[in-house]
Design a protein that fits this description.
- Homotetramer.
- It catalyses: a 2'-deoxyribonucleoside 5'-diphosphate + ATP = a 2'-deoxyribonucleoside 5'-triphosphate + ADP; a ribonucleoside 5'-diphosphate + ATP = a ribonucleoside 5'-triphosphate + ADP.
- GO terms for molecular function: ATP binding; metal ion binding; nucleoside diphosphate kinase activity.
- Belongs to the NDK family.
- There is one protein chain.
- This protein has one domain: Alpha-Beta Plaits.
- The chain has 7 helices and 4 strands, in the order E-H-H-E-H-H-E-H-H-E-H.
- The longest helix has 11 residues.
- The chain has 140 residues and is of the alpha+beta class.
- The chain has a 4-stranded antiparallel sheet with strand order 2-3-1-4, with helices on both faces.
Length: 140
């Protein structure tokens, strides 16, 4: 199987509770390697641009407000079948439906404050990585 890339965000609910290292450890233990990482305070413009696909949805304003409510950690990850591997360790969007041992089952506070975001396809992974990282920031 080929090594591919995916994108992850450790959300404000997790950074507020100082879970960055614990979440990253779970990603690494699942066979993913962090090849770029930075802690940022997402601006309203960044959040609106990143989540533009949801612009017409009723939760868009709340999502933007949540993602700008505190620092996040954006990461590019690499590994065999990275998107699927990341989505598996993240768990279901609703932590009540997530499998035991997943990030969301372990750490999420709610369906909205669910600790992590991850790309849903190889194509979106590239778009999302490129949104936050220059190629020279990706090492490994």
């Amino acid at each position: 199987m080929a090594v591919t890339r995916t994108f992850s965000i450790i959300k404000p609910d997790a950074t507020r509770r100082n879970l960055t290292g614990a979440v990253t450890k779970m990603l690494e233990d699942a066979g993913l390697r962090v090849i770029a990482s930075k802690r940022i305070q997402m601006t309203k413009e960044q959040a609106e641009g990143f989540y533009a696909v949801h612009k017409e949805r009723p939760f868009f304003g709340d999502l933007v407000a949540f993602m700008t409510s505190g620092p996040v950690v954006v990461q590019a990850l690499a590994g065999e079948d990275a998107v699927l591997r990341n989505r598996t360790i993240m768990g279901a969007t609703n932590p009540a439906d997530a499998d035991d041992g997943t990030i969301r089952k372990t750490f999420a506070e709610s369906i909205e404050a669910n600790t992590v975001h991850g790309s849903d396809s190889d194509e979106n992974a590239k778009i999302e990585i490129d949104f936050f990282f220059d190629e020279n920031e990706i090492v490994g």
